[in-house]
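Review form for a predicted model. The reviewer records the input and the model, then writes brief findings.
Reviewer: anonymous (R2)
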Amino acid sequence: MSEHVHLIARLVPREGREAALAQAIAEIVPPVREEPGCLIYAAHESRERPGTIVMIETWESQAALDAHAAGANFRALAARFDDLLGEPLAIETLRPIA
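Model under review:
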């Protein structure tokens, strides 16, 4: 079984901060894709909840994900969460079944 870590992260913007959240995410994607162990780092906007960003991520290992979470790219974004997010960041890890 692969040790890859698959997850989705849901970022719900504070009212009126939809464009700022989308811009912040767009800026972080390229450098995060260059981080060691990043296999997939894709940002999407929810069709059901416009403005809500859904990240689809795959990391080589839990260690790679942990390094990302502790790294400068994510920390810089997380420092803006109080201003940008209307709800806490929601992360759901996934287990492949087929």
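Findings: Residues 5-94 form a domain with the Alpha-Beta Plaits fold (CATH 3.30.70.100).
Further findings: Residues 64 and 70 are 10 Å apart (CA to CA).
Recommendation: see findings above.
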